[in-house]
Write a structure and sequence with these properties.
alpha/beta, binds 5-O-phosphono-beta-D-ribofuranosylamine, about 200 residues
């Protein structure tokens, strides 16, 4: 069973999808901690109402990495899910959780990722490019935004009359089933990282 710390910055619909998969028995895990990059993230209120331990990480202090690592250790986290986390995770935390930290991105990486590509900006860029498909990507986290071995992807069509908001909802629906499935692959020890690629067994 995975002991997952979920990092959030926003609404937390992916956090709830992970929680639902655990409750339904399709994800063999427990959420041991929810960490927010801002105290007013609605995801933190939801976690607290479910009795899940929460914490807030200030990225302004000098000891952000040791503060995060301390909380992860205190709560026995063995893996991390970045579920709409808008900050770059400090390199010391990435190293400590190498190949045990996953991120969900609302587009088909390596396109439409990187610094500044979050939330609405991603979907606006997809629409501006005129591509016909978008989707969601779950990948292993390394020290740069939205890079790292891709574990799972799923496509959605981009429709002629899409707005950033209609496209975001279609992608989000996919995210909610993709992230728990990717985490379950880790729970089953089925992901090997070889030559920078995730090999699923
Ligand atoms: C999702 O689209 C996720 O891919 C992106 O931020 C959004 C978070 O939504 N990184 P939520 O907070 O899980 O509802």
């Amino acid at each position: 069973m995975l002991n997952i710390a979920v990092f959030v910055s926003g609404k937390g619909s992916n956090l709830r999808a992970i929680h639902d998969a655990i409750v339904q028995g399709t994800l063999d895990a427990r959420i041991c901690l929810v960490l927010g990059s801002r105290p007013d993230a609605p995801a933190l209120d939801w976690a607290a109402s479910e009795g899940i331990p929460t914490g807030v990480i200030s990225h302004r202090s000098d000891d952000t990495d040791s503060a995060i690592l301390g909380l992860l250790e205190e709560h026995g986290a063995d893996s991390i899910a970045l579920a709409g986390y808008l900050k770059l995770v400090p390199p010391a935390v990435v190293r400590a959780f190498q190949h045990r930290m996953l991120n969900i991105h609302p587009a088909l990486l390596p396109a439409f990722g990187g610094s500044g590509m979050y939330g609405r900006h991603v979907h606006e860029a997809v629409l501006a490019a005129g591509v016909k498909v978008s989707g969601a990507t779950v990948h292993v986290v390394d020290e740069e935004y939205d890079r790292g071995p891709i574990v799972m992807q799923e496509c959605v069509p981009v429709l002629e009359d899409d707005t950033a908001s209609t496209l975001a909802s279609r992608v989000l629906e996919v995210e909610h089933r993709l992230f728990p499935r990717a985490l379950q692959l880790f729970a089953e020890n089925r992901v090997n990282i070889e030559n920078g690629k995730a090999i699923i067994q």
